[in-house]
Specification:
Blueprint (H helix, E strand, L loop, with lengths): L1 H20 L8 E5 L7 E2 L8 E8 L5 E11 L8 E3 L11 E3 L12 E7 L7 E13 L6 E10 L7 E7 L9 E2 L5 E2 L7 E5 L8 E5 L5 E5 L4 E4 L1 E4 L5 E7 L3 E2 L5 E4 L9 E10 L6 E11 L19 H12 L8 H4 L9 H13 L9 H4 L7 E8 L4 E11 L2 E5 L4 E9 L2 E5 L7 E4 L7 E5 L3 E10 L2 E3 L2 E3 L3 E9 L3 E10 L3 E11 L5 E12 L3
Parallel strand pairs: 1-12, 2-13, 15-22
Antiparallel strand pairs: 1-3, 3-9, 4-8, 4-10, 4-11, 5-9, 6-9, 7-8, 10-13, 14-17, 16-20, 18-21, 19-20, 21-22, 23-24, 23-36, 24-25, 25-26, 26-27, 27-28, 29-30, 30-33, 31-32, 33-34, 34-35, 35-36
Length: about 525
């Protein structure tokens, strides 16, 4: 012991001299002690087979340290715990209950001195031990936060009772008192206080219980109105609770548990199951679950006024009459074609009349109005494959068209390829090269009898919607296809005409086109037929 004390005193004197010479760094090393918690600052007493493992976690971010003396004391400040047991894990120390690793083991950083000294290490609190290390190369900086020391104990606790245990720095006397090179580490960096835990036996039940959850119940919500419900939960030990949505629509305040859901148009008539999770803010794996159903009730005035053809904030037989007069009796057009496109087909026709009647009087399908975004799909990933027949050369080949992003469609015509920009302006969709007149122009919804013209003084193209007629190709049947004709010209240089079957929500089904180049004398006569397609969701 005399030789050992001499070495330790020598280390202490070296450290003291070094501390007077070293300058303090801006960020000091920190030392923390952790233990597995089952609630905020609560640990179980453990036993011989499953002890409590206390970990000493350090982050040496300042400098390479060549010496250190770290004494720690286990005690109960209120005397509620008087006895612990050091559990033999085959580690170090007299009880083989202290572990050293990540460079603190005998073969690690401390090749000159690596010692564990114990003071009243008999289980009768307080118990103290001291780790002393000195190395020729030392403990390098910048390794990040790691666990270097652990010790295993079980805690004597009267059944049904609760205790309080702490770990703090200690001063067992020279040469074993706390000593580090500057900048000296901070113990418990938040407050500079000891690390303390309540000790009790965890209950055999969930630690998070719900106070206000309609388990398996159902909430009926009107479209356009909000559901606000406070999901209350508590921990048996008063831990703060964090809430989150596991599945289902809506949002929840993480701290208060206030759940909110306002149905959108797409939620009309839908039924949802919502699962809410609540967990301790201290221990992530301690949580509970609450589930309930939401049904968005259909109303007689549907989603965003869909079917209100007259736009008088009501849905009734007058809207049916208005639409029939427009379609078949030269009546005025609807103020909004999209409110009349109640089957989301991108077109207004007798099918919309039938759907409104069925909804109002026969409990039929809900009215879901269309939009220009659905009429000509161009989401990235969509593609269309056509068989092209050139009647002049009597030749067949295949054409691929694909949406490469939400604003561009690429055409691969085998002998050439090009990319059109897709531009949406109100009810109009233009396709063409950037900064040039549009090559194609559509005004939605498509309605038989409608026509439109593009004319920039040089290039002119006239469109007519001449009818609504289904068509079948190798790609399938398209009963909602419209027939469009077009005539175009570019001064004295070119002229052409075309006819196409266009199905809103899909695109061109068949395209017949003839074009004359009046300057160079070439002529095109070809038919495109859709043979396969994919519309990205």
């Amino acid at each position: 012991m005399a030789g050992e004390d001499f070495i330790l005193r020598k280390i202490s004197s070296i450290l003291s001299a070094f501390c007077m010479l070293a300058s303090a760094a801006a960020t000091a090393m920190t030392i923390e002690v952790t233990a597995p918690q089952y609630a905020c600052n609560r640990i179980s007493p453990g036993d011989a087979g499953s002890p409590v493992i206390f970990s000493v976690v350090m982050d040496n971010n300042d400098l390479t340290r060549t010496q250190m003396i770290l004494p720690l004391r286990i005690y109960s400040p209120d005397g509620s715990i008087t006895q612990i047991h050091h559990i033999n894990r085959g580690w170090y120390g007299s009880t083989q209950s202290i572990n050293l690793f990540n460079g603190f083991e005998p073969s690690g950083f401390w090749d000159l001195t690596n010692q564990i000294n114990e003071f009243s290490w008999d289980g009768n609190l307080p118990d103290t031990f001291c780790f002393t290390g000195a190395g020729s190369t030392g403990w390098p900086a910048g390794l990040g936060k790691k666990t270097y020391i652990q010790f295993a104990v079980s805690i004597d606790l009267t059944p049904g009772s609760e205790g309080y245990i702490c770990i703090d720095t200690a001063s067992p006397g020279p040469p074993y008192n706390w000593l580090f090179e500057d900048p000296a580490p901070v113990f418990h960096p938040d407050q500079g206080l000891p690390y303390c835990w309540y000790v009790s036996v965890p209950p055999d039940m969930d630690l998070v219980l719900f106070d206000n959850c309609a388990f398996g119940g159902i909430y009926y919500v009107d479209y356009g109105k909000s559901l606000n419900h406070h999901i209350g939960a508590h921990s048996l030990y008063g831990d703060p609770i964090n809430y989150r949505i596991i599945s289902g629509p809506g949002s929840i305040d993480q701290s208060s548990g206030l759940y909110s859901f306002t149905p959108a148009c797409d939620d009309y008539g839908e039924n949802y199951t919502v699962v809410i999770g609540a967990r301790s803010s201290c221990v992530a794996n301690i949580q509970g679950y609450c589930d309930f159903d939401i049904y968005v009730k259909p109303t007689m005035y549907p989603c965003e006024g869909c079917g209100d053809v007259k736009q008088d904030n009501a849905l009734n037989i007058l809207d049916v009459s208005y639409l029939i007069n427009f379609l078949y009796k030269d009546g005025p057009p609807p103020p909004s074609y999209y409110k009349a496109d109640v089957d989301n087909s991108g077109a207004v026709n007798i099918l919309d009349v039938s759907r409104i009647i069925n909804f109002i009087y026969k409990g039929g399908q809900y009215l879901i109005c269309g939009s220009i975004e659905n009429a000509l799909p161009h989401k990235e990933g969509s593609w269309w494959q056509y068989e092209r027949f050139d009647s002049l050369q009597m030749k067949y080949d295949t054409i691929m068209i694909s949406a490469i992003d939400s604003n561009h469609i690429h055409y691969d015509l085998n002998n050439r390829s090009f990319t059109y920009m897709v531009e949406t302006r109100g009810d109009t969709v233009n396709l063409g090269y950037e900064a040039t007149p549009p090559a194609e122009k559509y005004i939605f919804p498509l309605i038989a009898g409608n026509s439109w013209t593009y004319d920039d003084g040089y290039f002119m193209k006239m469109y007519n919607v001449i009818g609504h007629d289904g068509i079948t190709t190798p790609a399938g049947s398209f009963p909602n296809a419209y027939i469009l004709t077009a005539q175009w010209g570019c001064g004295y240089e070119c002229a052409g005409n075309g006819k196409e079957w266009f199905a809103p929500g899909i695109g061109k089904i068949v395209n017949i086109r003839q074009e004359f180049d009046l300057m160079d004398g070439w002529y095109t006569n070809e038919v495109w037929t859709l043979i396969a397609y994919f519309i990205a969701p």
